[in-house]
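Collaborator request, handled under Task 6.
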Amino acid sequence: MKFLIVFVALFALAVASPVDSDANAYVINQEANVEPDGFSASFETSNGIKEESSGHLQNQGSENEGIAVRGSFSYPAPDGSIISLTYVADENGFQPEGAHLPVAPEA
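Structure tokens returned to the collaborator:
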């Protein structure tokens, strides 16, 4: 009898718990193009996450050969606002920009 009471209580707790939309998210759109000297890719999910990026090979065949990437992503914050970030990653490092990022004081 105790087992039945505990089982029913746990079942009721599981049914009453809120559904996490992130756990049930799925990809709405996805594209990718990969070439020997670059790429582009994007995706969007049902819970509002979006990402786009592209890259190309710089200084091909030289000692400084590397890939330069530009991209952006966004997602809904818990308060309902949209967090967006754009970035460049190249020989100068990773350079993000977004309204939510702290800004260094001017010297």
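The cover message to the collaborator said: "The CA atoms of residues 28 and 102 lie 32 Å apart. The first helix runs from residue 2 to 16. Please let us know whether this matches your experimental observations."
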